[in-house]
Amino acid sequence: MRVIAAMSGGVDSAVAAALAVEAGHDVTGVHLALSQQRQRQRLRSGSRGCCSVEDADDARRVAAELGIPFYVWDMADRFAEDVVDDFVAEYAAGRTPNPCLRCNEKIKFAAVLDRAQALGFDAVVTGHHARLAGGELRRSVDTAKDQSYVLGVLTAGQLAGAVFPLGSMTKERVREIAAERGYAVATKPDSHDICFIPDGDTRGFLDRRLGAAPGPVVDAATGAVVGEHTGTHGFTIGQRKGLGIAVGDQRPRYVLGIEPVSRTVTVGTADLAGVDEVRTGAPTWTGPAPSLPFGAVVQLRAHGAGVPCTVTGDDDGGLVLVLHEVQRGVAPGQSAVLYEPDAERGDKVLGQAAVARAARRTPVA
C-alpha cells in the first residue's frame, strides 16, 4: 500500500513509520504543523506539549534514517478552528471536552486522511496504541497505554483508512525497537496534558481566552454561598481540588453542577456526587449500529475503568446508559465510549457518544 506515516516527532510514530516500511509499504512521512505560533514553540518543556519545531526536526531525522520522503503539512488554521476553538467553546458552555478525541476525529482521520486519499494514498499510519482486527477497533495489548478511547469516535470508513502498527506490543517494546535502530527519540518523554497548553495551566489558558466572569459557588445541601469564582470555565464535574470554598465541616466537596448563564457552580458531598444514568447526544459507530437495547461496557474518561451498562435510546436520537455501578465525575462533553461486553471480545470498540447529562436513578443510601 501507499501510506502516509503521521510523524509527530515522538517515539511511537517513529517506530510505527519504521514498521510500515519494514512491512513493505510505500511510505511517505508527514509532520503536522498545528501551532499558529510555531516560532514560539521551538522547544518542548519535558513531557509537556507537542508539535513544536523541535518535534518536526526529530521526525525529519527519523524519516531520513528510513530513507522515505518527508513533508510538513500546515494544518494550524484547521486545528485552531476544529480543536482549540471547540475546546474553548465547550468550556464556556459548561462542558468538559476531550481535545485529543476531537483532533483524531477532525484532523488526523478527516483532514489528513482526506488529503492523503486525494493524493492517491491508501491509508494513514499512526503511532496510536490500539489494534485493528478484521476492520474492528480494539484495545491495545498494553492496557496502560491503550488509546482506543480517543479513537472511539472514528467511523468504519475512517478505520478502513487507518493502520495502527503498535497495538500488539507494549510501550517498553516500542522503546526497545527505537533503541535497537539507534533513534534519538527512543528515550524522549511521552507527551502529557493538552498539546496546545504546554505549561499545563488549563484554567489560565481559558481565562485568557474567555476573560473573568465571576459568580457564586453554592452548596447543594443548604443553598448557601460558600465561595466565589472568576469563571465557570475553571471547573469540571467531579472536581475536588481548587474549589476555593469555606464550609462548616471537614467533608470534601465535589463539583456537582455548572451553570454558565447564571455563573453558578454547585458543590456537594461525596454521597451526592454519584450517578448511575448517563444521557448522550447522537452516537457514532465504528461498525454497524447495534440493535437497541443492548449490553455494553462504557468508559467515561480517557483513563477511566470500564463500567457495565445497559444501552437504550431516547426520543432525540441519543443514548441512555444505565450504569450497573455508581460513578463520579461524569461530565457533560466527555465521550462515553462503548465496548463489547463479552469476556473474550471485551476489547472491541462499538462506538461513542458525547455525554449530555448524568443523574442518579437509585435513591442515595
UniProtKB/TrEMBL annotation:
Taxonomic superkingdom: Bacteria
Site description Interaction with tRNA, residues in chain: 128, 334
Entry keyword set: ATP-binding, Cytoplasm, Disulfide bond, Methyltransferase, Nucleotide-binding, RNA-binding, Transferase, tRNA processing, tRNA-binding
Pfam families given in the database record: tRNA_Me_trans (PF03054), tRNA_Me_trans_C (PF20258), tRNA_Me_trans_M (PF20259)
NAD is among the record's keywords: no
Gene3D superfamilies recorded: Adenine nucleotide alpha hydrolases-like domains, HUPs, Translation factors
Domain tRNA-specific 2-thiouridylase MnmA-like C-terminal span(s) in chain numbering: 276-353
Gene Ontology terms describing biological process: methylation; tRNA wobble position uridine thiolation
Interaction with tRNA, as annotated region: 145-147
Domain tRNA-specific 2-thiouridylase MnmA-like central, residue spans: 204-268
GO CC terms, sorted: cytoplasm
The reaction(s) this protein catalyses: S-sulfanyl-L-cysteinyl-[protein] + uridine(34) in tRNA + AH2 + ATP = 2-thiouridine(34) in tRNA + L-cysteinyl-[protein] + A + AMP + diphosphate + H(+)
SUPFAM superfamilies for the chain: Adenine nucleotide alpha hydrolases-like (SSF52402)
Gene Ontology terms, MF aspect: ATP binding; methyltransferase activity; tRNA binding; tRNA-uridine 2-sulfurtransferase activity
Residues of the active site: 103, 195
Enzyme Commission no: 2.8.1.13
Keyword Ubl conjugation among record annotations: no
Main EC class the enzyme belongs to: transferase
Positions contributing to ATP binding: 6-13, 32, 127
Function: Catalyzes the 2-thiolation of uridine at the wobble position (U34) of tRNA, leading to the formation of s(2)U34.
PANTHER family per UniProt: MITOCHONDRIAL TRNA-SPECIFIC 2-THIOURIDYLASE 1, TRNA 5-METHYLAMINOMETHYL-2-THIOURIDYLATE -METHYLTRANSFERASE
UniProt family annotation: Belongs to the MnmA/TRMU family.
Protein name, entry field: tRNA-specific 2-thiouridylase MnmA
Native source species: Klenkia taihuensis
Originating gene: mnmA
